[in-house]
Amino acid sequence: MLNINRKLARLEKEGSYIKVGLVGAGQMGRGMISQIESMKGMRVVITADLVVDNITNAYKHAAINPSDIVETNDREAASRAVRNNNVVATTDSKLVTSLPEVDVVVDATGVPNIGAEIAWDSILNNKHIVMLNVEADVTVGPLLYKMANASGVVYTGSAGDEPGAIMELYDFADAMGFEVVALGKGKNNPLNLEANPDSAAEEAKRKGSAPKMLASFQDGTKTMVEMNAVANATGFLPDQPGMHGFEGTVKELPGIFIEKEKGGQLNGRKIVDFVNGVAPGVFAIIASDKEEVNAEMKYLSMGNGPNYVLYRPYHLTSLETPLSIAKAYLDNEATIAPYCGLQGETVAVAKRDLEVGENLDSIGGFTVYGKLLKATVAREQNALPLGLVDHNVVMKKSIKKGEVISYADVEQTKESTIWKLRAMQDREF
């Protein structure tokens, strides 16, 4: 991220700025619009949402004059508005991905199928794409990343999201030649595999969040998906199905992430995991086989070894997304991407007994939760990727609570983009 502030300042001084197209004016999108409006050399010039008032309110809260907001679904009118330094509110996401004036598209919808469509359309229109949609990324990201590379554009996850923050620690340690033993994040709440929008409703109301979103954190799905993204970026794998989910403090982490035969709790090295007790931070466990390096780490109060922890105690979610936008546009680089292909798979597990003919719902709902497996294990089980689950997927077999749902257990009532892309990805790789 070095020098991005100066590069953006230079861009503005030259009378130019990065033109951002955003899809999704929910909590993440709103915060991002306001943050970008405080920055040099960048602006969200067009935003799409099903509810136009969400967009206009987001722009107004960012201190944009209401007279500068143009509501339209017409391409020429939108182009003219952007050329006149106005901003556009639209209900048409394809207008965002196809508008010639847009340099970088951001998907902040949180819906896997919509995210896949936005990324696909952005790449086809030769635009960089920043994903605030990890669920779509872990399902079809390897294909989208390969497509983007072939098209000369950047496909990237977001800074500020936990996978992006973990990747920064990994890149830092790896560049210096440390062995990276493990990568992980803290979990904010106790794991409750039965959490659903009803059980999460009261807490969600207190926190001002959506019950479904909160349930997806409580049932562990979000954690599985986020560490899946890290696995695909680094080649690190879950040490056991669903990861360990250790308890511990930051100071205890180096001792936890040691192999069992050496007094720790791991089956192997180069793993991804999560820990209750260190939220909202992210961490990397590192080691060195050099005597002088270990002596200096001890001198620097990093501990007595053999492992050390790099810990970042915050991640600013969509407020940091502009850094990924700038990195893609200015340096043609990703913050995090599935460089290693499909290494992990977050599979759908029955949250309760499921009967023939039942429609599944979606992430954070009543029917399924996610569990991170090695991709090889998921293939052996013919397991259904969680990102393919939606209301158009129907059970054609009954399965018991806690069982992994397979492709053979379900059928589609309506084909979706993400299913098509996943089939293409499976054939490609």
Strand order, sheet with most strands: 3-4-2-1-5-6-7
**Overall residue-averaged pLDDT value:** 97
Shape: globular
Instruction: Provide the CATH superfamily of the largest domain.
Output: NAD(P)-binding Rossmann-like Domain
Tally of domains: 3
Pfam families: DRL_cat (PF21135), NAD_binding_3 (PF03447), SAF (PF08666)
Protein name: NAD(P)-dependent oxidoreductase
GO molecular function: NADP binding; oxidoreductase activity
Organism: Ornithinibacillus caprae
Overview of the structural elements:
- The protein has 429 residues and is an alpha/beta fold.
- It has 3 domains: 4-161 and 318-331, Rossmann fold (3-Layer(aba) Sandwich), CATH 3.40.50.720; 162-314, no CATH class; 344-428, Type Iii Antifreeze Protein Isoform Hplc 12, CATH 3.90.1210.
- The protein is 39% helix and 19% strand.
- It has 16 helices and 17 strands.
- It has helices spanning 4-13, 27-37, 52-61, 75-83, 93-98, 112-124, 134-151, 162-175, 197-207, 211-218, 221-234, 253-256, 291-299, 321-331, 375-380, 417-428, and strands at 18-23, 42-48, 69-71, 87-90, 104-107, 128-131, 155-157, 179-187, 237-238, 246-247, 271-276, 282-287, 307-312, 344-350, 368-374, 393-395, 410-412.
- Strands 3-4-2-1-5-6-7 form a 7-stranded parallel beta sheet, with helices on both faces. Strands 8, 9, 10, 11, 12 and 13 form a 6-stranded mixed beta sheet that branches. Strands 14-15 form a two-stranded antiparallel ribbon.
- β5 (104-107), α6 (112-124) and β6 (128-131) form a beta-alpha-beta unit.
- α6 (112-124) crosses α16 (417-428).
- The longest helix is centred in the first third of the chain and has 18 residues, at 134-151.
- The protein is globular and about 65 Å long.
